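Need tokens for this chain, all 127 residues.
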Amino acid sequence: MIVDDLLKTITEEIANMVSTKTVIGEHITVEGKTIIPVTKVSFGFGSGGAEGKKKADEEGTGGGGGGGASIQPVAFLVVTADDVQVFSIKGKGALAQLTEIMPEMVEKYKSMMEEKNKEKTGETGTN
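Here are the structure tokens for all 127 residues:
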């Protein structure tokens, strides 16, 4: 009987922990874009127990259980009025991430250099 109760308690607790909000996270809305995190949820558990009698007057029961869980972000959905995009973050190394942001960095660098040249030109024209 104790093993049945133990298994029931463990499975009920796991059911409470794992829901759609665990895998598909709470959305965030920024500047007209809705960002939805997507995660990978893994879990495992084990339990065991025994009941027995040694003599007519001596009875014993025992049981135990344990478990573990892992939640890892794997992607983000970005939803706009016109489009839905999936940005995967699982398995990307530093080089892949750098490659994705490089065009934006180059544009920022260009605009900074243009601003610097305008300031320089403005200074020499007035002196």
